[in-house]
Amino acid sequence: MKVPSKLWTNEDFATWQRIIRLDAVRANAEWMPYSPSQAVVPDSRAYRSAEAVGLKDYGHLDASRIFHAARLVAILEAYALYDPEIGYCQGMSDLLSPIVSVISEDHEAFWCFVGFMKKARQNFRLDEVGIRRQLDIVAKIIKFKDGHLFRHLQKLQAEDCFFVYRMVVVLFRRELTFEQTLCLWEVMWADQAAIRAGIGKSAWSRIRQRAPPTDDLLLYAIAASVLQRRKLIIEKYSSMDEIIKECNGMAGHLDVWKLLDDAHNLVVTLHDKMKIVTSFR
């Protein structure tokens, strides 16, 4: 395994370990219906796994959640050593949990997570350059699609779209159910795979698909979720805090297929304009 050269200290790793364990124990059980083999793990195996990774304060959890938490700890600690520039940040467990739930072998789940983080790691950089770039794209999508809404956001000093920060960091994981998350991520990955395969806009039209593939489908979906609430935001909200509360309250109230339809409509309408704007950055 190739480990980057940046050094980490014992204090760094001890901090990562402490936060990883807390986040792993707090992970919800939403995944269980989709991973029945892991949901019926024997108590003895769960406790052995917890002991092996030094998991603590798990007495309130059943065996399946203990086992799941232990797997999260093992893989996240390995990733922190693999990529010490990023290490571990809160939110990474949200991204790993669905992967662990559908892949039963830790070594396979680890390498899938490494692949996932090649793009998502920018969300966890301390300088937040990657996050700010993505928030800027969301802001431009909203501005180009709905000038009235964007002017209202400017009036509230919310035109930086900081209110969707959490959605960007954990790729909508906390707003969508487990099943919805997998749907959105798989469509997003399909777009990225199409781009890697060299399928551009002209080729996309030949196979009779409306929206060309984009690396930023997640950001179009985030903008779509805000645009779906434009009337509420314009007529009732008078501060950034109110919009943040509304966005955080989306959890469990989103229709992922409507969200994808709206996102693809935005791609069709704005793809060329956004490509020109982002090419100058």
How would you characterize the overall build of this protein?
- There is one protein chain.
- The protein has 281 residues and is an all-alpha fold.
- It has helices spanning 10-26, 36-39, 43-52, 63-82, 92-102, 106-120, 129-145, 147-155, 165-169, 178-196, 201-206, 217-227, 230-236, 240-248, 256-279.
- It contains 15 helices and no strands.
- The longest helix is centred in the C-terminal third of the chain and has 24 residues, at 256-279.
Radius of gyration: 20 Å
Estimated helix fraction = 55-70%
Total strands? 0
Poorly predicted ranges: 1-5
Topology:
Layout: H1 10-26, H2 36-39, H3 43-52, H4 63-82, H5 92-102, H6 106-120, H7 129-145, H8 147-155, H9 165-169, H10 178-196, H11 201-206, H12 217-227, H13 230-236, H14 240-248, H15 256-279
Summary tags:
281 residues, mainly alpha, 0% strand, globular
Give the gist of this structure.
This protein is mostly helical and 281 residues long. The protein is 65% helix and 0% strand. Helix 7 packs across helix 8 (147-155) and helix 12 (217-227) packs across helix 15.
